Every structure is written in C-alpha cells, then in structure tokens.
Amino acid sequence: MWQAKEAADEATATGFSYLLAVEMGEAELAAALLNFADSHLNPTDHEGGRFYNAGLAPIYTTALFALGEAGGLQVLANAHPASDETSMDTEENFAVSH
After folding, report:
1. 90 or 51: whose pLDDT is higher?
2. Taking the model in full, what pTM does it have?
3. DSSP 90
4. CB-CB contact of 33 with 14 (8 Å)
5. Beta carbons of 71 and 25 less than 8 angstroms apart
6. C-alpha separations of 80 from 12, 85, 88 in Å
7. Are residues 77 and 47 in contact, defined by beta-carbon separation less than 8 angstroms?
8. Rg of the chain over CA atoms, in angstroms?
9. How far apart are CA 6 and CA 55, in angstroms?
10. How far apart are CA 23 and CA 1, in angstroms?
11. CA 77 → CA 28, 74, 81, 97, distances in Å?
12. Sheet holding 96-97, edge to edge
C-alpha cells in the first residue's frame, strides 16, 4: 500500500525538486527534471501551456512547474498584487506555458 502512495506522489516530489533546482541555479538538473515531467507525468496541452495530470495533486504539481519556469519563489516576493478582475482559482490559470 505505501508503495502505491509513494509512486502516486512522484509528480509532486518532482515538481518540488524542479523548483528547488531552479532556486539553487542548477539549470542542468532543472532541465532534466522538466524533461522527466514532460515524459512521465501525463502532461496535456491547455491554452498554450501544459497541465500535469499525474499524482495526488495535479494542480499543485503544475503550479510548482509554472513557478519554476517563471523564475522561482522570488517571483512571488516581487509580484505586484493582482487586479480585482484577475482570479487564480481555476485550473486554467496554472497551465505551464511552453
């Protein structure tokens, strides 16, 4: 039973690993993790981006990759508040752009 849960969570762990590699400036490792995700985490094209459908929390996995591709957590620290018209409560907003 624990093995099934561990395998199912591989997607989220890969997303966190990718984000950490980006934060640490490990470009080669980040690229390898992104290639792995694109090959093994069931990505689907969605409005010019990709959504990872694997794991226990696909929306969080996709968000981790999107955040990494945007430059990392410093993007959040330096982000401007969203306008009242912008909503981040839908899966479409988390698609990673190619």
Report:
1. 51
2. 0.71
3. S
4. yes
5. no
6. 27, 14, 14
7. no
8. 14
9. 9
10. 33
11. 25, 5, 11, 21
12. 43-46, 49-52, 96-97
